[in-house]
Here is the input.
Amino acid sequence: MSDHVDPPGAGLFAVRLMPPDPRHPQRLAGRVEHVLSGRRREFADGAALLAWLLLEQRHAAGVASPP
Here is the structure.
């Protein structure tokens, strides 16, 4: 169990997935948006989505991004 409590809405995201590419049916692509701030990012694969979510988590925690 964690004692960390995120502020309300800190992790509120909307994700829109694009239809699968027949050449790459398992590829995850789409757009993610932080609902409260309106910041959004298009992503071409799962790694890019996770990287952006990590950046948003750091932003919400007030932690500087790594160089």
Observations:
- The two ends are 31 Å apart (CA to CA).
- The chain has one helix and three strands.
- The mean pLDDT is 78.
- Helices lie at 46-61.
